[in-house]
Amino acid sequence: MRHLSTVPPSRGTIIFLNGTSSSGKSTIAAELTRVLDQPCFHMAVDAFHAMRSRAPVPAERLDEVLHRTWQGFHRAVAGMAAAGNDVVVDHVLSAEWRLRDCLALFDPRDVVFVGVHCPPAELERRERARGDRPTGLAVRQLPQVHAHGVYDLECDTAREDAATVAHRIKDFLPRRPSPTAFEKLRAELRDGT
């Protein structure tokens, strides 16, 4: 067995799936963990919310608790990638600060930013079928989730199934652009645009 001190340093790739609730991110992430050649971790903010104890949160503290959960999630993703792990992130950038936080934390050269789109009528149909989300939540998220407008790759889950999207992402990985979408967004943030 190789001693841990001999493990060469490495940077992990972050495949960042951004879309509204019910857009199909988790299904794509599950397919990616199946088809990618390298070991990877699916990290979803819903899983982080599920780890929270069931202690009641007073209404006046709810926003703070949720904000800290998102911040912790971002730092966990950054830490996994910095340790050389490939990560598939399932995220909803429905608040501008979330994107800014990720831009500050992640190495932008290592992020493949994927826009997961789905038409409003299909989002509402999926919400009704799921039964665990309020109908209309995803449509309310739409204006902010894709407001930044820059991706490395985009998909429409009403037109492509998760397996097709996962294979497109896999095929895209070896020919990632330079600068990446995250590099462009970080530059825009620096320039104040």
UniProtKB/TrEMBL annotation:
<feature type="active site">
    <location>
        <position position="46"/>
    </location>
</feature>
<dbReference type="InterPro" id="IPR012853">
    <property type="entry name" value="CPT"/>
</dbReference>
<feature type="binding site">
    <location>
        <begin position="19"/>
        <end position="26"/>
    </location>
    <ligand>
        <name>ATP</name>
    </ligand>
</feature>
<protein>
    <submittedName>
        <fullName>Chloramphenicol phosphotransferase</fullName>
    </submittedName>
</protein>
<dbReference type="InterPro" id="IPR027417">
    <property type="entry name" value="P-loop_NTPase"/>
</dbReference>
<dbReference type="GO" id="GO:0016740">
    <property type="term" value="F:transferase activity"/>
</dbReference>
<keyword id="KW-0808">Transferase</keyword>
<dbReference type="GO" id="GO:0005524">
    <property type="term" value="F:ATP binding"/>
</dbReference>
<dbReference type="Pfam" id="PF07931">
    <property type="entry name" value="CPT"/>
</dbReference>
